[in-house]
C-alpha cells in the first residue's frame, strides 16, 4: 500500500459528521412518515378487492407507481431540483430531497401495502359490511392493520433502502451524511478515510433502524 | 447561441445510454458469477465461511451504493493502481450485485425441501454433484423471476456511477442540460429513457413470476 491510512484529520471534523447524521435521520423520518401515508393512499386506490374505483384514478396511480419504480432515484431528484425551476417552481435542496424521498417511498410502499391488502380474506370485508361499517371504517379498522402487519418486514427493508438512497441528496447540497463526507474529503484530502467512516456510520444506522422498526412493528402492529 | 433541437438532445442521450446498458450488463454478469461462487461457499458449510459471506452481504446491503462507488474509486487508487471511473464503477457495481444475487439465490436454495438433499446424499452423490444435479436445477426455476427483477435495480444503480464522473445516461443528461439550459426537458427525457430500459424488464419479471405461481396452484 502506498498511502497509510490516517483518520485523525477526518475525526477532527466530527461536528460535520454529527450534523450529517442528524440530517440523514431527519430526512428519513419525515420521508418515511409522509411516504407511508402516500403509499397507503395509493394502495387503497389500486387494491382490487375493495370495490370499484374510477378508471382514471386507477390509471393515474398505476402510472405514478410504475414511473417511479422504473427510474433511478437520482434522476427523480435532479428532475425535481433542476427541472422544476424551469417551470417557475424553485425548491430548496432540503425540500427537494424530502419530496423526492416521499415520492419514491410512496410508490414502493404502495405496491407492498397493496399486496397486504389483497391478501385480506374476502369474508372479513363482507363481515365488516355486515356490521354496517362504512367503507372508510372497514379500510382503517379491518383491512389495513393486518395488511401492514403481514408486509411489515418488506416495508422495513424498503424504508432502509430509502434511507441509504438519501446519500444521493448530498449531490444537490443537502447537508446529510454523504455531503459531510464529501466536504471533509475536500477539506482534508483524506478521501478514502472520510468515505469509509461515513460508510461505517451508514452501516450502523441501517442496523439500528432495522431493529427499531421491527420493534415498532411488533409493539404497535401485532398487539392489536 | 446555438439552438439545440429535441432530436439533438435525444440522439446524444441515446448514445450515452449505450454506456448505461454496457455497465449494467458487466455488473449483472460479473455480479452473477461472483454471487454464484459466494453461494457455493455459503452452502458448503465450511467453518466460518458462512458467517463471512453473511457479513459481506450485510455490508453491501446496509450501506449506500453511492458510498461503495466512492470507496472503490478512492480505494483502488490507494493500492497504487491507476483507476478510472469506468473500472471503479464496474468493480463497485459487480460487488454490489453479487451481494444481492447471492442472498436472493440462497433464499431459493433454502426453499428446496431438505429431503432432496438427503435423497441425493443417500445416492452417494458428493456435495458438488448434489448441487449440480439435484438442488440447483430446482432452485434455478424459482430463482429466475427475482433475478430478472433485480436487473432493474442494477440498471437504476448504474445512474449513481455518474457521481464519480462516469459518462452514462444520467451524467450525459447533466452535461446536456448545462449546455442547453433546458433541464426540465432533458431530465424528463433521461427519466423516460430509463423507463424504456427498465419497464420491459419489470414486465418480464412479473410475467415470469405469475407463470411460476400459476404452476403451483
Automatic annotation (TrEMBL), chain B:
The keyword Transmembrane helix applies. Gene3D superfamilies: MetI-like. It comes from the Bacteria. CDD domains: TM_PBP2. PROSITE patterns: ABC_TM1 (PS50928). The chain crosses the membrane at residues 20-41, 53-76, 184-208. It holds the Pfam family BPD_transp_1. NCBIfam families: HEQRo_perm_3TM (TIGR01726). This is Polar amino acid transport system permease protein.
Amino acid at each position: 500500500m502506498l498511502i497509510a491510512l490516517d483518520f485523525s484529520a477526518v475525526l477532527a471534523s466530527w461536528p460535520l459528521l454529527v450534523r450529517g447524521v442528524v440530517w440523514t435521520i431527519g430526512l428519513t423520518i419525515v420521508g418515511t412518515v409522509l411516504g407511508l401515508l402516500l403509499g397507503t393512499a395509493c394502495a387503497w386506490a389500486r387494491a382490487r378487492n375493495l370495490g370499484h374505483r374510477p378508471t382514471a384514478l386507477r390509471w393515474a396511480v398505476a402510472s405514478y407507481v410504475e414511473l417511479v419504480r422504473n427510474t433511478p432515484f437520482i434522476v427523480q431528484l435532479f428532475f425535481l431540483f433542476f427541472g422544476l425551476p424551469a417551470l417557475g417552481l424553485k425548491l430548496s435542496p432540503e425540500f427537494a430531497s424530502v419530496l423526492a424521498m416521499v415520492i419514491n417511498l410512496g410508490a414502493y410502499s404502495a405496491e407492498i401495502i397493496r399486496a397486504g391488502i389483497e391478501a385480506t380474506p374476502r369474508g372479513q370485508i363482507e363481515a365488516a359490511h355486515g356490521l354496517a361499517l362504512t367503507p372508510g371504517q372497514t379500510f382503517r379498522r379491518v383491512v389495513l392493520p393486518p395488511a401492514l402487519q403481514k408486509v411489515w418486514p418488506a416495508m422495513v427493508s424498503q424504508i432502509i433502502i430509502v434511507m441509504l438512497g438519501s446519500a444521493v441528496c448530498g449531490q444537490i447540497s443537502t447537508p446529510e451524511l454523504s455531503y459531510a463526507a464529501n466536504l471533509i474529503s475536500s477539506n482534508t484530502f483524506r478521501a478514502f478515510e472520510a468515505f469509509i467512516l461515513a460508510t461505517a456510520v451508514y452501516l450502523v444506522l441501517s442496523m439500528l433502524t432495522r431493529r427499531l422498526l421491527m420493534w415498532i412493528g411488533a409493539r404497535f402492529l401485532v398487539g392489536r | 447561441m446555438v439552438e439545440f433541437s429535441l432530436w439533438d438532445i435525444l440522439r446524444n442521450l441515446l448514445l450515452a445510454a449505450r454506456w448505461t446498458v454496457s455497465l449494467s450488463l458487466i455488473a449483472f454478469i460479473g455480479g452473477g458469477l461472483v454471487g454464484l461462487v459466494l453461494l457455493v461457499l455459503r452452502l458448503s458449510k465450511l467453518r466460518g465461511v458462512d458467517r463471512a459471506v453473511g457479513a459481506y452481504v450485510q455490508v453491501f446491503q446496509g450501506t449506500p451504493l453511492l458510498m461503495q462507488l466512492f470507496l472503490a474509486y478512492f480505494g483502488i487508487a490507494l493500492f497504487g493502481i491507476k483507476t478510472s471511473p469506468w473500472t471503479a464503477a464496474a468493480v463497485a457495481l459487480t460487488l454490489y450485485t453479487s451481494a444481492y444475487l447471492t442472498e436472493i439465490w440462497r433464499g431459493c436454495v433454502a426453499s428446496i425441501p431438505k429431503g432432496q438433499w438427503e435423497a441425493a446424499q443417500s445416492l452417494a452423490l458428493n456435495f458438488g454433484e448434489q448441487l449440480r444435479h439435484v438442488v440447483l436445477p430446482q432452485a434455478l426455476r424459482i430463482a429466475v423471476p427475482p433475478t430478472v427483477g433485480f436487473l432493474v435495480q442494477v440498471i437504476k444503480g448504474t445512474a449513481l456511477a455518474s457521481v464519480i464522473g462516469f459518462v452514462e445516461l444520467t451524467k450525459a443528461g447533466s452535461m446536456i442540460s448545462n449546455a442547453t439550459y433546458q433541464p426540465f426537458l432533458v431530465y424528463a427525457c433521461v427519466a423516460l429513457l430509463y423507463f424504456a430500459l427498465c419497464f420491459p424488464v419489470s414486465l418480464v419479471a412479473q410475467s415470469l413470476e405469475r407463470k411460476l405461481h400459476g404452476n403451483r396452484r
